[in-house]
Amino acid sequence: MIKKTLLETICYTFVFLFVYTAISKLLDYENFKAVIGQSPLITRFASVLAIAVPLVEIIVSILLVIARYQRIGLYSSFTLMVLFTAYIIVLISLSEKVPCSCGGVISKMTWKQHIFFNLLFVLLALVGMWLHNKQDNRTAIRTKFTTA
Question: Which of 31, 98, 100, 146 is exposed most, by the fewest CB atoms within 10 A?
């Protein structure tokens, strides 16, 4: 029961994070697009990414709240957080002054805080994936013994 509650808490924490940041980006769309357009790595893709990133965050959030798709949501959350973290590390390695394209309160963090924040969410995703796999294994074992 505790593991199931922890798994749900992790999933809804990601839902909150992704929906919050997606809405922040969409509400300030022009600024978000302009800021990511200044990035030396993704300038050419700024228009597409300005829509794609918040859309992906919302889709992953939906996956996390539908039990059937929760595993894909957790793996997607992990992938997004690793990609966001790697992007930040590469970006700050290339330039000292890089504008933050994150939404809301997260944009007020320093780059170091942002990396630690992201790493915390990478760990949360790993724990969520582990808990989900454990839960699936228990269900498979229970099903095997009840159908035998």
Answer: 146
What are 84's two structure tokens?
A: 């966001």
* CB-CB neighbours of 25 under 10 Å: 25
Q: Do residues 121 and 17 touch, judged by C-beta distance below 8 A?
A: yes
- Which residue, chain included where needed, has tokens 């919302």? 58
pTM: 0.86
Q: Give every CB contact of residue 128 below 8 A, 6+ residues apart in sequence.
A: 7, 10, 11, 14, 74, 77
Residues 52, 32: Cα–Cα separation, whole Å:
12
The closest of 39, 37, 33 to 103, measured between CA atoms, is: 33
Query: Degrees (nearest 5) of the Cα angle 12, 142, 148?
Result: 150
C-alpha separations of 40 from 36, 37, 113, 134 in Å = 9, 8, 22, 42
**Are the CB atoms for 1 and 115 separated by under 8 Å?**
no
